[in-house]
């Protein structure tokens, strides 16, 4: 897309099982046009083998430490992956 050749599919991790399941179902309908356009773009990339969407658990998702409340040990483990 930006002139950089890829050796394989782009790996996308999501923590929402509905998003992962719907990325390969062509019969899905969405109410908002902007969501529909983005959805079909992703679904086409998955069908063409250019993207691979997999599940990422909240316990190991580094982005979740910025958006969700974590208990002490989980937060410590996530922060240590970023800082050290």
From TrEMBL:
It comes from the Eukaryota. This is Uncharacterized protein. It comes from Seminavis robusta.
């Amino acid at each position: 897309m930006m002139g950089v050749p890829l050796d394989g599919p782009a790996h996308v991790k999501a923590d929402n099982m509905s998003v992962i399941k719907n990325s390969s179902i062509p019969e899905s309908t969405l109410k908002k046009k902007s969501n529909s356009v983005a959805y079909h773009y992703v679904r086409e990339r998955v069908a063409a083998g250019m993207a691979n969407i997999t599940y990422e658990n909240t316990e190991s998702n580094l982005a979740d430490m910025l958006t969700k409340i974590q208990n002490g040990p989980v937060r410590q483990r996530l922060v240590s992956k970023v800082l050290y």
